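task queued by scheduler; priority normal; single chain, no ligands, no partner chains; default sampling; output format set to structure tokens
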Amino acid sequence: SFATHLLAAGAHELNGRTTLDSTHYFETVHRDALDFALFAEADRMGRLTLSEATLERQRQVVLNELRQYRERSRGRFVERIDAECYPAGHPYRHGVIGREADLRTLSLDQAHEFRRRHYQPANAVLALAGDLTRDEAMRRCERAFGGLRSGQPLVQAAVSASAARSFCFDDASPHPQKRLVWQLPAMPSMIDREGLRLFQIALESRLRDECPAAASPPRVGLAFHRLATRLELEWNAPDQAGLERSFSSFGMLWNRLIDSGFGAPEAERSRRLRWRQRMQGLDARSGVAALMIEGELAQRDSAAAFVSREQLGAIDPAAVMRRWFAADEAFASPHRARPASKPACASGIAPARRIGAQAPEPSSTRTDSQTLETGLKLTLQARSGAELVSGRLLLSAGASAEPAGQMGLAQLCAEASLQARLDGASLRQRAEAIGCDIHVEVQSDALRLGWASALAQWREALVLVESFLNIALDAGAFASAQSRQLAAIELASTSAEAATQRVLPALLFDAAHASARLASGLRSSVSALSLDQAIAFKQSAWSLRDAQCALVGDLEAGDVIEALSGWRTGLGTLRSAIEAAAPKTVNPSLHLLDIPGAQQTLLTVAWALPEPVQETEPALRVLDLLLA
């Protein structure tokens, strides 16, 4: 198969995906394997033949994907939304996977005809990101693709644009959910797309700021397609009453935003966050290539995807909201479409014609490691020319450090610290204000804090991390984190995958083993935790002694050491509450987890392995790849 040969050539990030508008194949390869990868993709495009056996095998794979989609992501609910949002005959009325009846009747001749019409150079866009000159890239691509029949480019007809239309949907199985969907016209301009991205970020920030302590803010999704754009808000809750309260609260917030918009600090915060997101996307070759493809498909210009910081700074999220949403009285008439009020937007796809703009590349890297006087182990990878600074802090304060009977305390303590307020704002709010992304993950053996910021804000980001370590927990932050952790546990019980992952540790490991503990805890254990216990755990377990910090960016070691030298935490006298132990001996056994209403069966086979050490971890990872 293509995957087998490309993997043998050292390819990674090797995959493919199909969207409503296009199919993407991508891989990252060593420079020496580029010619092979290009010839493999040319072969897939122009010379691949299908057999009845291959078609039937893939038919069963896709049918099972359809069943999984309906089961895992409430696909039937999404299908109902698509059917109501798009008129009959619209290409987006059915999802990417398709309909079961069509999949079962698809013939080999139909599959070949689809490939003949669409898999041809005139209907394709190719992006290369790496250390290549334009002439070299063109020469290599011509060798690989030059022998293929060009074909005719397929151009999709323009569609009439309209003002935002809002739709509201409810679903009760397996737990209460509500979705509010806005249909918008297509956004072929990258500046228009960036405007909606800024609005999405500003809305998410306002929702987190104003969401009641007992509820989680809705998920905000934004999808750009060639014929339409969709903004979607999704509420999930353990009970219907909580969901309705959250939805009603959002309605009042939305009306206030329509009237008064976002303040200047909110707008600037959104711009900083979006710029940091873009820099993270450009941090890898795959991100550069994906952005070039996006610019080519949206605007027929790969260079247009590289929006400058000045262009981003000129966008006002409040003006974006007024432009697209003011005409739609979402909460007065959520199902009625508004009359057209925007100019139509043409869209289509054209053959590749150019080598896109180049993103700035770091010129050199160097690594420096040392232990500071506080015991903090610092690793700095200095990357000259990088506009982004990324950091990781590892504390020995995972689930294994929790006192007996307090399962879930480590995660609760970490989340409450992010929500605790200092000078009237939580750490998350202060991070957003400087465009910094900060997140925390609690594992069995460690607490991992990650952050990323623009180079200009790297010192401010480190001040936030120190605040995270030392901020005093308050009752409001603790209650909010506890409520959300319990809600997450409740929602996980309705998912076959999530519920299985919660059960497996107890089946594979003895209770005395660190891996037997769930970072999120149990309903009973989390409900019984108190603020005093969280304060005591933070004071004793959060220590810089044996902690590790890694920073990557255009930084000097002396500046970083100076910034970290004043960091202090508690005494950190508490060690792991659970002694290291080998996995328990498990005889082959079968366990059934009953989830009422599930229409698929998830089969999970698991082995308990010894804890990897530096010498054995690479071998275990290779074994994992071989098994996959």
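post-processing summary
- Confidence is low (pLDDT under 50) at residues 333-362, 571-580.
- The two ends are 15 Å apart (CA to CA).
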